[in-house]
Design a protein that fits this description.
172 residues; 2 helices
Length: 172
């Protein structure tokens, strides 16, 4: 059975993809949750790798490692599509909160799209939820979920008004 890709993950012009990314991240920045980012795009042969971190309130860090494959070359802009991703959310100085990825499969899952859930205070993995290709989040949706998690757990965070230190982020 072929897993269908949601339209939000369909092919897109690289320039449009980057413009949408900047707009969505700008909205989180303007709202005061996203404080800074060191995300960078590295062009490889027919692949673009986006990696780095997003520092958020409460010491929350979203670490990104994703690959966009060039599916069509054009004169003005190439067409790319995400083929592999890892979005890890952690609390600076504590542990992981969640990690979405499609890098490996788990027994009993219909495809490789899943989410690891952690106890952020102990860094113990609690479970791995299969989300499937249809539940695969965009980076913006992961930041939005992280923002909701922040508000739900703000009173438990050691420094709820702090800004995460990207140099200490967890690698995903």
């Amino acid at each position: 059975m072929i897993a269908l890709r949601p339209i939000k993950h369909g092919p897109n012009k690289l320039d449009d993809y980057l413009r949408t990314h900047d707009t969505v991240m700008g909205q989180f920045h303007d709202a005061g949750f996203l404080c800074n980012s060191d995300l960078a795009i590295e062009p490889l042969h027919r692949i673009y790798r986006m990696r780095g971190g997003i520092a958020c309130l409460g010491g929350i860090i979203v670490t990104v490692d994703k690959f966009l494959e060039e599916v069509e070359s054009g004169r003005s802009s190439c067409i790319v599509q995400t083929v592999q991703y890892r979005y890890n959310v952690s609390v600076d100085g504590a542990g992981n909160v969640m990690r979405y990825d499609n890098v490996h499969s788990h027994p009993g899952h219909g495809d490789s799209h899943h989410c690891h859930r952690f106890d952020w205070q102990t860094d113990e993995e609690l479970r791995v939820d299969w989300i499937g290709a249809g539940g695969w989040p965009t980076l913006g949706e992961v930041v939005e979920e992280s923002q909701q998690w922040y508000w739900d757990n703000r009173s438990l965070l050691p420094a709820p008004d702090s800004i995460a230190d990207l140099s200490k982020r967890q690698r995903c």
